[in-house]
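Is this the right way to post structure tokens for a design question? Let me know if I should format differently. Anyway, here goes:
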């Protein structure tokens, strides 16, 4: 009887030991291999020329010349603004109107005749993309501007933009769609799943679940937001979002934000920004 009890005790001890080891194994978090693109976004600071590198002779904001100057000066990327005409043609322009014509309510036949400050005609996005696609390795932040109180306009603006970009799917890895409108970001991802999306905000964002539900990949902040909360980049990174900051021209600010491990800095002085980062 004593021997039987001893054997039983030994067997129970072995069983409990195996069970504990199995439970310990089950509660260990799975080993997840980091996504290479996320590592690049968080640790490799890129400089983007705000509306193209326009502060040079013969250039202008959102012009073909500013795109060319960006590439020629070996700046990492170009940032641009898109607006759609009444007849669904996509143009590069920051403001809602040009030469007194509201782009949203004006036909392309009129807009094609409008000149910007360097003498170029208002660039069509189709022509811009023809040139951009020849600049190997140049990154692009493509902001789609909202229309005035029109959901259907916004949806069509996204659709027409993606139609053009889908002619250049081999370069999708270099392009990011930007918008202040969450729905427009989500639509962009629905139309072109391989394109990354960035939600732009002038205020701190802490609800990362909402961003994920809307298929957002990155966050773009006005530099003032980073001054309000110095931990906001770290929190975004920990939740899987890269952070870009605009528009940063002060050299000390460039140093500060790069130290926060932002993904990218959008600047009107991109060459100075790159030179500062080379010194770090």
């Amino acid at each position: 009887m004593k021997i039987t009890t001893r054997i039983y005790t030994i067997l129970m001890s072995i069983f409990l030991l195996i069970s504990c080891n199995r439970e310990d194994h089950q509660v260990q978090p799975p080993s997840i291999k980091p996504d290479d693109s996320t590592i690049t976004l968080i640790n490799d600071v890129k400089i983007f020329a705000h509306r193209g590198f326009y502060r040079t002779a013969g250039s202008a904001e959102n012009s073909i010349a500013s795109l060319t100057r960006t590439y020629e000066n070996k700046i990492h990327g170009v940032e641009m603004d898109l607006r759609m005409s009444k007849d669904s043609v996509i143009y590069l322009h920051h403001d809602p109107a040009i030469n007194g014509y509201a782009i949203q309510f004006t036909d392309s036949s009129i807009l094609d005749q409008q000149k910007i400050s360097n003498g170029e005609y208002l660039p069509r996005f189709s022509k811009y993309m023809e040139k951009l696609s020849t600049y190997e390795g140049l990154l692009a932040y493509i902001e789609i501007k909202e229309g005035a109180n029109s959901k259907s306009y916004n949806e069509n603006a996204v659709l027409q933009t993606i139609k053009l970009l889908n002619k250049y799917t081999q370069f999708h890895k270099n392009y990011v769609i930007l918008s202040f409108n969450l729905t427009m970001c989500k639509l962009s991802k629905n139309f072109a799943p391989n394109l990354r999306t960035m939600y732009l905000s002038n205020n701190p964002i802490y609800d990362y679940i909402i961003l994920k539900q809307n298929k957002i990949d990155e966050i773009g902040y006005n530099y003032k937001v980073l001054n309000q909360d110095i931990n906001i980049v770290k929190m975004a990174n920990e939740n899987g979002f890269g952070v870009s900051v605009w528009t940063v021209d002060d050299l000390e600010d460039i140093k500060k934000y790069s130290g926060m491990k932002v993904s990218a800095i959008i600047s009107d002085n991109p060459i100075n920004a790159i030179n500062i980062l080379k010194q770090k």
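Format looks fine. Someone answered above. Worth noting: Residues 1-43 have pLDDT under 50 and may be disordered. The radius of gyration is 25 Å.
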